[in-house]
Structures are given as C-alpha cells and as structure tokens.
C-alpha cells in the first residue's frame, strides 16, 4: 500500500465544481501520477529533510523530471499527511 502523499487532492472536488460552475474559469490541472521510483526518491528526501530550499527543490525536480511546483506541492501534502498521522 504505497502512498504518494498526494491524497488530499480529491477527484470529488472536480465533479462538484463542474456541476456548480460549468466551464467558467480556469480548468483544474490533472492529478500527477508519480512513478514508484519518483515516490521512493521523494520519500527518502523527505525523511532527511521536511522542507526543501529553492536549490534543493530545483535539483530534485530536474533529477525526477518533475516541475518545481509538483515537488513543492508533494512536500506540502506529505507534511500534512505526517501531521494527520501524529
């Protein structure tokens, strides 16, 4: 049962938004499907440090072929998951 730490973004919000507002406004970005290798590397990095600086985030994003925003969001979601578990 491997988790990406990305569970807080639910598909239910998309359906509710579509029913209420239709196609107005910006469309929500599709959920990222992280590979198991990406998740493993992200988790290992998270175990070492809970917060990444800009330089570390840039390097990790390049290494994993993800955007810096995806890395930032993953770490935010992972910290919230840890907070819920404690």
TrEMBL record:
Gene Ontology molecular function terms on file: DNA binding; DNA-binding transcription factor activity, RNA polymerase II-specific
A Gene Ontology term for the protein's cellular component: nucleus
Pfam (any one): Homeodomain
Keyword rRNA processing part of the UniProt annotation: no
Domain of life of the native organism: Eukaryota
N-terminal signal peptide: none
Region (Disordered): 1-34
UniProt-annotated location(s): Nucleus
InterPro entries: HD (IPR001356), HD_metazoa (IPR020479), Homeobox_CS (IPR017970), Homeobox_TF (IPR050848), Homeodomain-like_sf (IPR009057)
Residues annotated as domain Homeobox: 25-85
Low complexity bias (residue ranges): 1-18
Keywords: DNA-binding, Homeobox, Nucleus
DNA-binding region: 27-86
UniProt family annotation: Belongs to the BAR homeobox family.
Designated name of the protein: VENT1 protein
Gene (name only): Vent1_0
């Amino acid at each position: 049962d491997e988790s990406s730490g990305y569970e807080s973004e639910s598909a239910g919000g998309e359906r509710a938004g579509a029913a209420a507002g239709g196609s107005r406004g910006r469309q929500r970005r599709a959920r990222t499907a992280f590979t198991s290798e990406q998740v493993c590397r992200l988790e290992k990095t998270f175990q070492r440090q809970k917060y990444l600086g800009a330089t570390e985030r840039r390097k990790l994003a390049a290494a994993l072929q993800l955007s810096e925003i995806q890395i930032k969001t993953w770490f935010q979601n992972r910290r919230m998951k840890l907070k819920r578990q404690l």
